[in-house]
Amino acid sequence: MKKEIAERLRDNSLLDRIVTAEEAASWIQDGMTLGLSGFTRAGDAKAVPMALVDRSKNESFKVNVFTGASLGFDIDKKMAEAGIVNKRLPFQADPTMRKKINVGEINFIDQHLSHVAEWVRGDVHNPIDYAIVEATAITEDGYIIPTTSVGNSSIFVDKAKAVIVELNLSQPAGLENMHDIYELGKQGERQPVPLTSVDQRIGEIGIRLDKDKLKGIVITNFPDSPSTIVPPDEETAIMANHLINFLREEIKAGRLTNKLAPLQSGVGSVANAVLHGLLESEFEDLEVYSEVLQDAVFDLIDSGKVRFASGCSMTLSKEKMDHVYPNIEKYKDKIVLRPQEISNLPEVIRRLGLISINTALEVDIYGNVNSTHVSGTKMMNGIGGSGDFARNCRTAIFVTKSLAKDGKISSIVPFASHIDHTEHDVDIIVTEQGYADLRGLAPRERARVIIENCAHPLYKEQLTDYFEEALMRGGQTPHVLEKALSWHTNYASTGTMLQKEKETVTI
Amino acid sequence: MKKEIAERLRDNSLLDRIVTAEEAASWIQDGMTLGLSGFTRAGDAKAVPMALVDRSKNESFKVNVFTGASLGFDIDKKMAEAGIVNKRLPFQADPTMRKKINVGEINFIDQHLSHVAEWVRGDVHNPIDYAIVEATAITEDGYIIPTTSVGNSSIFVDKAKAVIVELNLSQPAGLENMHDIYELGKQGERQPVPLTSVDQRIGEIGIRLDKDKLKGIVITNFPDSPSTIVPPDEETAIMANHLINFLREEIKAGRLTNKLAPLQSGVGSVANAVLHGLLESEFEDLEVYSEVLQDAVFDLIDSGKVRFASGCSMTLSKEKMDHVYPNIEKYKDKIVLRPQEISNLPEVIRRLGLISINTALEVDIYGNVNSTHVSGTKMMNGIGGSGDFARNCRTAIFVTKSLAKDGKISSIVPFASHIDHTEHDVDIIVTEQGYADLRGLAPRERARVIIENCAHPLYKEQLTDYFEEALMRGGQTPHVLEKALSWHTNYASTGTMLQKEKETVTI
């Protein structure tokens, strides 16, 4: 153990900063703002948040919790149960925390993932009292080496009044040299971000540490929570095929080559499954420039389909961890992990011309996308990076199954009950029914192709009826306003979006 | 006249390309796509489109019309009346064309202004058959010098199969050397855009011309249509004061200095009036990085408040034209005109950290903004550049009067009937009632401050009633879905958004 620590804590002058998680947690005071490492279950600070939860059994306090994205290790769940979270941002994915958010007990700020660092740097968000970040190592020359994610750790450490490092011995030592940490500097004073290819390194191997701010080092030994991703199914395989067909058409039209363009794929099972489908494609020498690197990316690397992947976290299933971590050296020249501000930076996304694939919760007939709110009101997880990518990429693709809840919900609706991505940012919709290419189409044209290509047959007629009634009213984006949200209110009152008479017919 | 032409058409080998507008218009065939110069009434191609309209009296055809933004000179009106437009993008502001769009006779693509060039370059939009661009001069070394706007002219000329230049003798010769034309190159192959300050020149003084593609030169002599801007009134002066108060608070908080940050202001009377209010402020050495430079910018330059302004067009009232054009030399080291892809580029907007001021049509209680659609269905003008700026700037400010139609419409509504800017992109709302600083607030908190600070007293109670009923239902973004759009349907059926009983009380 001592030897292991010495290998990872390579600045002897810092040995006396080692404390227990309990002691570190005891420094945190009511009303403080914490900047935690962690991005979709990867590389989260684990011991200190847990000790803080424990402390709350005997003491009443609340803190603001800022992270990269969602946390693993049930940290969000336990913090929510303990009632110690006042403000939470910018993303979470825990059912218990979700409930607390939806009853208004936690103030959840649903922010574009690339914007958080900008607001922390610019002193718009609350000042960070403690940055608590997981590390693979602290180097002899004073760099914190992150673990399986970078997230917002570098800006949290930079701006925090004090820093606590969780040195996690269970994270592969080989993660060192996989990160590329670049600090943009203040708006108005910064230079262009020099990144022009997915495999380029523009920064440093770790987060520069101001030793005076380092208040404590906690030694931990907990692995990341594995991802809970659902494996590809028949429908996601069909969706992947539709996507591949779209990409083939792009090649035919001369807009892409067989190497495509750097791919971004959102977090979640559907996006992962769709990406997985590329394994069976003829495309080659692919590149990934994404935020989360999920199982599918590693399968694509292993198969030789993907030549390089840039991300800001590796979020893997247990099985994939067992495969990747012992072989981490093999991936070192194929993967780089960057701060989420860089993985999601509009400047880079547009320069590289990404193909973006993100998941929609619902889509309206004009192509406005709801990514976050069930029935327009209840938060699911958050917008994440989907806005960073969809707005700035080459082609913004949204994927969703056309039905939910055994057909009681149509993912294609007349009017989205909440909008995260406006029609201006939505190019392609893919469902298991087909794909709609909306580029260069006016709203009325968009509606026809979405209903025709993407809606489930169960709802096609009902959608067409709405659209035709709306057309009688006219407008650039025709609607029957008094019926626009009736599908959602019907679902709330009758348990299905299917209209009564239709239901009888189909039964 | 001959001398004047020689001074402006400085490549003698091109003299034989001079043709009449009628001849140039005769080359255009049914189904073609035209890329016209012109951005908010400035620098539009005038003679050839007019000749095309004339041709339609004897002949039936339709073309796709791509521009920078809206046109002056009643071109959109006359093209719409003539029925010769199939597809129109990305922005227009003409009442007659608007009608044709809203009945579905013209397919209008409402696109982010910075995205158009990307889609033309990437062959996503229809190929440009003819670029028809107004010029101040064609230089001896083959550059087309634009006039009062750049818009999308450079990419249209670059990608078009053939080019027609309207050499406009009425545009000040002194416009030469005011432009900075930069071509980004293909996505995936381009370098960072090197712009790091508003006054920096990164490109060339004109649009590089492939002489082989130059099919005709039409000599014209028509001035731009003056802007129809409404002068500041009492309410816009109050709004300007609220904005100034917000900026003062930013300085107090240490987030801005007295020089502020580069300002962007959307097209239109309210944004112009609000900018005008800065004349009376204590801020100094201001910079403008915007798309349209309207009257207020020139007043601010004249008063010494603004030290430099970068735009993609100058859209001036008649009075201001008469002042600026004879003195154009005076403005030469204070103004640069760029392609709209550069004036609106996310990369530059975020790097410089702009303060963006754009106009909202309606705002919901959670801060979602409708910029385009009256009652959710009828197109007004288009999103323009507001999305480019709001998403990527330092602080996204939206301004609107709290009432419209003599109080029959509240600009603050429970649920926006159309969304162009989601809550993720809306930081500050300013009405004549006050301003709401929404940064770092959860939706429930946003609602309280918007209703309290921005809504008109006439609608405050009604909004509060809705919000309180919605809170009973719960959610991150509470709504009463069956009543969410009732304000709009009430307005349609009763002529006012005021609820009946309230109306009685207030009368």
Automatic annotation (TrEMBL), chains A, B:
GO terms for biological process: acetate metabolic process; acetyl-CoA metabolic process. GO terms for molecular function: acetate CoA-transferase activity; acetyl-CoA hydrolase activity. Residues 323-466 form the Acetyl-CoA hydrolase/transferase C-terminal domain. It is an enzyme of class 2 (transferase). Pfam families: AcetylCoA_hyd_C, AcetylCoA_hydro. The active site is at 291 (5-glutamyl coenzyme a thioester intermediate). CoA binds at residues 266-270, 381, 385, 405. The keyword Transferase applies. Its EC number is 2.8.3.18. Keywords: Transferase. Residues 18-172 form the Acetyl-CoA hydrolase/transferase N-terminal domain. PANTHER family: ACETYL-COA HYDROLASE. Belongs to the acetyl-CoA hydrolase/transferase family. This is Succinyl-CoA:acetate CoA-transferase. It comes from Oikeobacillus pervagus. The lineage of its organism: Bacteria, Bacillati, Bacillota, Bacilli, Bacillales.
